[in-house]
Design a protein that fits this description.
210 residues; alpha+beta; endopeptidase fold (from Nostoc punctiforme); 7 helices; 8 strands; globular
Length: 210
């Protein structure tokens, strides 16, 4: 069974999101899922009621509410929606562990998003979602992955993460009817995103072999 979740209700009204929780997105980007051979296409991490996410074109920091709202907007008009899986730590992170993760994650905000490291198996100036989350977990001292973090896909991280457990069922995130965008507004946002994606792709292509 998969839950339906109305994003404009605060998530804390349904469940508590622990520090160090990973938010995995399934059925989000077909290209990523096909290339990595996994149904998981994205991952973000929660710390101090904020979500840190490496996404195109750069690492960003959202409130939990903003992040779930973005997922709800992504799902508007989609017949096959993206689903969110919550993986919380079995044991709460200590203040010291959280402090180390916080220092790392704050240092990443604004860093360029890049898949070059994953494709070439070489760490670069950019970073991708699962690479950032894996490095954040390692910075706490609890985790140690057997490969370079740049080589870890969202599906790999989901399969390899230890000391975490799934909270409830996967969530189908939806916007409340009264807050849904018009078709015109959705198309406008889609074109803005495509423009950003086009600029990022050109830069990524030019720097791929550097």
């Amino acid at each position: 069974m998969r839950w339906a979740f109305l994003v404009l209700l605060m998530p804390s009204q349904l469940f508590a999101i622990e520090n160090g929780t990973l938010l995995f997105v399934e059925n989000g980007q077909n290209l990523v899922e096909c290339y990595t051979k996994s149904s998981y296409s994205h991952v973000a991490i929660v710390l101090d009621d904020c979500v840190y996410e490496a996404e195109l074109p750069e690492v960003k920091k959202y409130t939990v509410q903003e992040w779930f709202t973005n997922i709800g907007k992504y799902n508007e008009g989609k017949g096959s929606p993206a689903l969110v899986e919550i993986q919380a730590p079995d044991k709460p992170y200590t203040k010291e562990e959280l402090g180390k993760m916080k220092v790392f994650l704050e240092s990443q905000v604004g860093r360029r998003y890049s898949i070059r490291g994953y494709l070439r198996k070489i760490p670069g100036t950019g970073i991708h979602c699962s690479e950032m989350c894996a490095t954040a977990l390692e910075s706490s001292g609890r985790c140690n992955f057997s490969v370079q973090n740049c080589e870890i896909s969202p599906g790999d991280l989901h399969d390899w993460i230890s000391g975490h457990h799934q909270v409830g069922n996967q969530l189908y995130v939806r916007i409340k009817p009264e807050h849904r965008r018009t078709l015109c507004s959705r198309w406008s946002d889609w074109w803005k995103h495509k423009g950003t994606a086009c600029g990022w792709s050109c830069c990524e292509s030019l720097t791929f072999c550097w």
